[in-house]
Prior knowledge:
By secondary structure, this protein is an alpha/beta fold. It folds into 2 domains: 3-118, Response regulator (Rossmann fold); 130-225, Arc Repressor Mutant, subunit A (Orthogonal Bundle). The chain has 8 helices and 12 strands. The chain has helices spanning 11-23, 34-44, 60-68, 84-93, 105-120, 156-166, 175-183, 191-205; strands spanning 2-7, 26-31, 48-52, 75-79, 97-100, 130-132, 137-139, 144-147, 150-152, 172-174, 215-218, 222-225. The strands form 3 sheets. A 5-stranded parallel β-sheet has the order 2-1-3-4-5, sandwiched between helices. A 4-stranded antiparallel β-sheet has the order 6-7-8-9, with no helix packed on it. The two termini are 25 Å apart. The structure holds calcium ion (CA). Calcium ion (CA) binds at residues 9-10, 52, 54.
Amino acid sequence: MTRVLVVEDDPQLVRALKINLQARRFEVEEASTGGTALRIAAARKPDVIILDLGLPDMDGLEVIRGVRDWSRVPILVLSARHTSEDKIRALDAGADDYVTKPFSMDELLARLRAATRRQQAPEGRSEDAVVTTEGFTVDLAAKKVLRGERSVRLTPTEWHLLELLISHPGRLMTQRRLLLEIWGPTAGDSTNYLRVYMAQLRRKLEADPSHPRYLITEPGMGYRFEP
Ligand code: CA
C-alpha cells in the first residue's frame, strides 16, 4: 500500500482528500502544521507527500527544504498560490509537481500516481536506459537517438538538454535548473538559450514542431518531457 502524508490545515479539504485517497487504497497520514509534517515525514517515511504551502506555523517551502535535506520522497504541492514565481520557488526548493487550488480530484490523483511511479523507477542513470516513445527512441548509455530507423544527430548541448528532460519524465524542469545544469552559474537567466535549443530539438524529434507532443513548454516556468 502506498503511504501518503497529507500536509494541509484546512480540515474540510483534508477530509475530502482522505476519503478519495483511502478509496484508492492509499494509506493516509495527516499533518496540519509544518512542524508536525517534518516530524511525521521523518518518523513514518511516507511514499509521497501532498503539501499545502500556506501552513499556520511555517511556509510550505521550509517543509520542502527540511524534507529535502535527507529524503527524495516525491512532494506534490497543492496550493492556492498560482503565479509562475510561486511554482518555480516550490520546484526549485525540491517539489516534484504543483497543483493549483481549486483542483480536480482526478487531476490530483493522476499527478500523484505519476509522482509515485517516478519514485519506483529511479532516475535514468542505469547503463541500459532506453526511453521509447511513439515518435523516437533515446538510448541514454549509447547517447543515440533514433526516429524510426533513422539516427538523429544532436549537438552536445542538445543532447544534454534532452537527457535532462527525459531522465525526469513528466516532471517540470525549471528554466533556472536547466540553465544551471547545462551552462553553469554564468548562464544566469539567459532563457533565450533554452528557447533556441528546445526549438532545435523539436525540429529534430517532433512530428509537428510547432505543436510538440513530447517536449512541452510550461510558459514562464520551464519544460517537461511528456512520455
Ligand atoms: Ca492552508
